[in-house]
Amino acid sequence: MRNTNRFAIAIALVGATALSVIAQRPRSTSQDSNGSTSSMPAPPAAPATVKVKYEGGVFGYKKKVDGTLNFDDTNNRLVFRDDKGKELFPIPYQAITGAYADTHKVRPKAATIGSNLPYYGWPIGFIKTKVRYLTLQYDDPDSRVAGVTSFRLENKDIIDSVLYTLANKAGLDRRGEVFVRKRQPANP
How far apart are CA 37 and CA 43, in angstroms? Predict the structure, then answer.
């Protein structure tokens, strides 16, 4: 009886292993080999002014600041203004080398404090919210400043439309979920 149980367990383990190996086989995709995803529908155009929170990354601006991102098409640049309307810094469209949307799950400060309550606090520690960021990589040849900056936006629809609009205005190419600027070939 004992040997029969061991034999059945061994057969079950071998079967489970075989099924997991089969599940790991490579699958073909219907995407082009160059990685472009042109079949995805374009989101609606972004408004000219979008409410954001600057999270850091631009040389000389260390503080997190609430403000707006403005598409300044006459000067071909993206402008960040504080909540009083004062222009803090521009990023020229041609200086943007990469852009993508990112999402993080974070625990709010109230949930962190509440999770320390005895007995009742442990479920509060599981509360998390999604935070969405627009991350830009830039290299400005005029000022010789390069870096990565991020802006916190309200929701997925806004961030998708801002990212798509900015990528089109800056001339970036789509690579999956990321937009990048192709390198120009060196002239001989």
Answer: 14
